[in-house]
Write a structure and sequence with these properties.
This protein has helices at 30-39, 50-57, 75-84, 105-116, 172-176, 187-195, 200-210, and strands at 2-6, 22-27, 44-47, 63-66, 123-129, 141-143, 146-150, 159-160, 227-228. By secondary structure, the protein is of the alpha/beta class. The chain has one domain (2-70, 102-228): Rossmann fold, CATH 3.40.50. The strands form two sheets. It has a seven-stranded mixed beta sheet with strand order 3-2-1-4-5-7-6, sandwiched between helices. Strands 8-9 form a two-stranded antiparallel ribbon.
Length: 231
Amino acid sequence: MKILNLYAGIGGNRKLWDDSHDITAVELQPDIAAIYADLYPNDNVIVGDAHEYLLKHFFEFDFVWSSPPCKTHSLIRFMYSKNSCKNDNTKSNYKYVEPKYIDLSLYQQIILLQNYFNNTNKFFVIENVLPYYEPLIAPTAIINRHSFWTNFKIPKTPTLEHGQKIFHLTTTKKQFGFDIKNYKVHTTRKVEILRNLVNPELGLYLLNCANGVFEYNDKSNEPELPFGSQN
């Protein structure tokens, strides 16, 4: 399968994808792209604007995964902005965060792929946070605190245990199999990179759903599973 992995980061979603796939990854930050290239030497890594790359090249791929920036959509940002803008004398634990318009590139991509990948053998996943507003386009599924738009059915929705908590650099290798402590990236940025990881098991699960392979295990009591069934 020819796969396009946009806003690739260091490839959390891609980690368990079979190396037999022809994968192109697009990442804007050169230092992050360098880590991805080191972790996945068989992938074609492009340093550039994922939004523009999608528009120009989406038709070349069988499967597209896109995780566009989520900060302007985030409930956390809204909470900080809303509370820091209160004009009163009450004490607040919120630091000032400037309100911003939401980044509509998210919905541009959804509309593009919903229409151009409709009734074809091409599939897409667009992933973002659960927004502070009612989504302009309803997601296919909500998994943990994230929204997913796809053009295929997700037969069962896994509930992830880890969420988006900040992983300590010494524990991340145990949880997701990533160890980036020796790369030349500032520690603060390493934390952000790891925080933005998509659970590799979820990345594989959604790729399998697109392929019609439903390798899902309902036994949520088994501790080795990163996700369990959702009631």
